Amino acid sequence: MAVLRDLRVLLRLRGFRRLLAVRLLSQSADGVYQVALATYVVFSPERQSSPAAIASAMAVLLLPYSLIGPFAGVLLDRWRRRQVLLYGNLLRAVLASGTALLIIAGVPDWLFYASALSVTAVNRFVLAALSAALPRVVDSDRLVVANALSPTVGTLAATAGGGLAFAVRLAGSDSDAVTVLLGAGLYLCAALAALRMARGLLGPDPELVRPRLREALGNTTQGLTAGLRHLAERHVAARALAAMTLMRFCYGALTVMVLMLCRYAWSNSESHGLALLGLAVAASGAGFFAAAVVTPWAVDRLRTATRLSPDVQVRWVIVCSAAAAVLEPGLGLPFEPAPMLVAAFVLGLITQGAKIATDTVVQTSVDDGFRGRIFSLYDVLFNVAFVAAAGVAALMLPPDGHSPLLVVTVALLYAATAVATSRSWPA
Length: 427
Prior knowledge:
Elements (H helix, E strand, L loop, with lengths): L1 H10 L2 H29 L8 H12 L2 H12 L4 H25 L3 H25 L9 H29 L4 H19 L18 H6 L1 H14 L1 H31 L4 H37 L4 H22 L4 H29 L5 H26 L7 H20 L4
Helix pairs in contact: 2-6, 2-7, 2-8, 3-6, 3-15, 4-6, 4-15, 5-6, 5-8, 6-15, 7-8, 7-12, 7-14, 11-12, 11-13, 11-14, 11-15, 11-16, 12-13, 12-14, 13-14, 13-16
């Protein structure tokens, strides 16, 4: 198979292997840290969680980076991305250790959220840098395969990290701090892995680097304006980002619903609920892996049929959103664990498949000097969509998470995404 051949070639590229190692360690740490926070907020025996409480927690952790994200993009187009990966992961290791100490001390919630907020802030820089750097270590002919492998394997690493966090959490009721410290150790390993790459390997080009922070921040507004103008001129990339944002909204609403179902409707104990949530995360991770295999094959088939080079990625996004509109209500409306686990797999495949295509569209349509800004905007759209979905879910969900209205509404949104993206197709 051509995909397997390209994959073997990619793994022989030293720069790609080293960037992938940083992603794997960094995102596995994300998985550990995020699951540790979720279990502390949702499944702690002393807490009575509700959809509104979950939505509030997501807003506290994610919304502030709608403001930080654009600044991150401007800086990423001026700072060496390898240094961002090094110092960003070092800083996260220190901050995550601080979160563990706060959990041990039993501090008020606002202080705990402030600590978690600081780790998430740095995460915006690291994830955007990883995506913006990929075209620097892979040739354009294999970029689709690289996008299928790198972010997807990173997501699987996050899933594996989350599974490890579940295992540690289930091993003892007072293990949240230990789990967070495990994440801090993995962040440190990611920083050390970044040292294996040359300072200038990941770009941007030397003439674009502005080492002075004051100068970079002073030009932030102009940089953002230029980045948005650049994106507006890339219609295929803008269309793919819009569709991916709506699909992220749908995925976020369903995530809150599954959290509440696992916490109250499907279980009689904290450990049983955690186990069910762990299975749902594993099923979604399996879907992410399947997307890495299916997407390059599907894109090749669509390219053969349509003879379109950049637009073929958007066609795959349309196929994914249409498939979700058909499959999601059939699997979700029974509100039973078994079909919901199948839904987690299917939506994991569909969501990650659309993301692989969107990443490729952005990387191939956007100039290197603007990639940091566009990927940071991409990240901001993800956060806003997820938090907005949590807020809508909080209004629609009953305490046990059983809401046919939410399932049907999400299906209609998937269908609307497919139709709107198809109608925006150039004549």
